[in-house]
Structures are given as structure tokens and as C-alpha cells.
């Protein structure tokens, strides 16, 4: 059962002599409940691939299917709402709103998703799920990297998306936070979430069920299934 599928996708940035062909005829099918790690050298197309999978950008050619719906022909507003309920993103630098507390960052996502009731208790539930309820009132800059990451994950989970897409989520974590993070991913995976994580981290990559290596805008090789 394929939940997300990239078919014969190319992505070209820029125009004229300054173009970059970031993806070259890439096909990747993600099964429901699968945990995939995407690895490969810097600048070779991993972030681009993740952004196209999440409908954050359009491919130059090819199609992206989410639950068998070709999302490349959707309007921006349809795409935005689809993203909101189907997909949670965790970005490399977490992109938390700096003037809002951990709880408020999560509440904001709930509110954007159309929920207006019980924002505090729902927000606290989400922070509790990631083990951060005790820091609910802290601003992001009063949290460690690992704690900020947890807020970002709680926020990504706000509208109960089926799919979690993460771009270098362990870039700035120490090994303790990393172990914590892996436990959390394991729990989310066991709870049925589909997880795609772009990572340079061998330990994180090693825990995924499938490893996809991207090189020079192409899928160079894949290892493992399940
Ligand atoms: P990776 O995630 O593997 O580091 P990226 O997908 O970020 O690779 O980038 C792939 C290539 O596309 C790089 O050469 C990068 O400079 C280029 N690129 C990525 N995003 C843009 C953009 N918005 N505009 C122009 N070039 C881009
Ligand atoms: P990564 O750490 O995954 O390699 P980068 O730091 O290269 O990602 O890029 C982060 C984001 O910045 C990319 O997802 C892309 O959208 C954008 N970007 C990357 N390279 C360029 C570029 N040459 N020009 C414009 N935007 C870029």
C-alpha cells in the first residue's frame, strides 16, 4: 500500500546558464507505515526530494502522488490544507517561533489546523508525548537543541498527520538527545506513522527500515525493505 510516491521527477532550479538540475528522473515509492532514511553527500538533492514529497515545491517534470492523488495539479490553497493534515515537517533548524513558548508554538499549529478548543490541554498532550511537558512555558532560546527538536516534533504531530518528513533533524544534537530522538521515532513508527528522514547521521540512518542513497540528483542505491 503506497502512501506517497514520486514518479519520474526532475527538478531544475534557476534559468538560463545558471540552472541546477537538482533531481534527475527520480522515482521513489513510500509504503504506508514505512521508515525510510535518505542519505548522501551535501548538495546532491536530498532536501529537494523531501520538499517535493511534502508538496512544499513543484517538480519541473514528473508527478507526486499522495494517497494516489496527483498533488502536482493542486492549487496552492488545496496543497496547503492537504499538507496540514497529511504531513508533518521537522526542519533542520526546527523553525520555532522565537517569541512564543514551547506550548504556544504547538498551540499555533493546532489553531492553524482549525482547532480552537482545548488548545492548552491538547498542546500539553502533544508536549507530553515527546517528553517535554515540564518545559511548556520556555521560549525556544531557553531550550537545548534536543528540547527544541521535541517541540518541533510535537508541532509536526499537531494535526495527527500520517506522514512525518524530517530534514537533518539531528544536526545539532548530542548523543543523549540523539538516543532520545531515536526512541521517539521508534514509538511513532510503532504507532503507525510513516517516517522519511534525511540524515547524515549513521546511527539514525541505521535504524530505518530502508536506506535510500541520493547522489548527483539520482537514487544511487537502496538497501533493506520493511
Ligand atoms: P542536499 O539536501 O542533498 O544538500 P539540496 O536538495 O538542498 O541538496 O540541493 C541540491 C542542489 O540544488 C544543490 O546544488 C543546491 O545548491 C541546489 N538548490 C537547492 N535549492 C535551490 C533553490 N531554491 N534555488 C537554487 N538552487 C537550489
Ligand atoms: P542541506 O543542509 O539539507 O544540504 P541546504 O542547507 O543546502 O540543505 O539548503 C537548505 C535549503 O535552502 C534547501 O532546502 C533549499 O531549498 C535552499 N537552497 C539550497 N541551496 C540553495 C541555493 N543554491 N540557492 C537557493 N536556495 C538554496
TrEMBL record:
Query: Domain of life of the organism in this record?
Result: Bacteria
- Extract the GO molecular function terms from the UniProt entry: ATP binding; ATP hydrolysis activity; transmembrane transporter activity
User: What keywords is this UniProt entry annotated with?
Assistant: Antibiotic resistance, ATP-binding, Cell membrane, Membrane, Nucleotide-binding, Transmembrane, Transmembrane helix, Transport
- Extract one GO cellular component term from the record: membrane protein complex
Which terms under GO biological process does the entry name?
response to antibiotic
User: Gene3D superfamilies per the record?
Assistant: P-loop containing nucleotide triphosphate hydrolases (3.40.50.300)
All copies of domain ABC transporter, residue ranges: 4-226
Q: Which InterPro entries match?
A: AAA+_ATPase, ABC_transporter-like_ATP-bd, ABC_transporter-like_CS, ABC_transpr_LolD-like, MacB-like_ATP-bd, P-loop_NTPase
Identify its protein family.
Answer: Belongs to the ABC transporter superfamily. Macrolide exporter (TC 3.A.1.122) family.
Write the protein's name.
Putative ABC transport system ATP-binding protein
Instruction: Tell me what organism the protein belongs to.
Output: Sulfurirhabdus autotrophica
Amino acid at each position: 500500500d503506497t502512501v506517497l510516491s514520486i514518479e519520474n521527477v526532475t527538478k531544475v532550479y534557476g534559468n538560463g546558464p545558471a540552472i541546477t538540475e537538482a533531481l534527475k528522473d527520480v522515482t521513489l515509492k513510500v509504503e504506508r507505515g514505512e521508515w525510510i532514511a535518505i542519505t548522501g553527500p551535501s548538495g546532491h538533492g536530498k532536501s529537494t526530494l523531501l520538499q517535493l514529497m511534502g508538496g512544499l515545491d513543484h517538480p519541473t517534470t514528473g508527478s507526486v502522488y499522495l494517497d494516489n492523488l496527483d498533488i502536482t495539479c493542486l492549487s496552492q490553497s488545496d496543497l496547503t490544507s492537504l499538507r496540514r493534515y497529511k504531513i508533518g515537517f521537522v526542519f533542520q533548524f526546527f523553525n520555532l517561533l522565537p517569541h512564543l513558548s514551547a506550548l504556544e508554538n504547538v498551540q499555533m499549529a493546532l489553531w492553524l489546523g482549525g482547532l480552537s478548543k482545548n488548545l492548552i490541554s491538547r498542546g500539553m498532550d502533544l508536549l507530553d508525548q515527546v517528553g517535554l511537558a515540564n518545559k511548556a512555558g520556555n521560549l525556544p532560546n531557553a531550550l537545548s537543541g534536543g528540547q527544541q527538536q521535541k517541540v518541533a516534533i510535537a508541532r509536526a504531530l499537531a494535526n495527527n498527520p500520517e506522514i512525518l518528513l524530517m530534514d537533518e533533524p539531528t544536526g545539532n544534537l548530542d548523543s543523549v538527545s540523539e538516543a532520545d530522538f531515536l526512541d521517539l521515532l521508534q514509538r511513532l513508527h510503532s504507532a503507525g506513522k510513516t517516517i522519511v528522514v534525511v540524515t547524515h547521521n549513521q546511527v539514525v540512518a541505521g535504524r530505518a527500515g530502508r536506506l535510500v542513497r541520493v547522489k548527483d540528483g539520482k537514487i544511487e542505491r537502496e538497501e533493506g525493505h520493511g
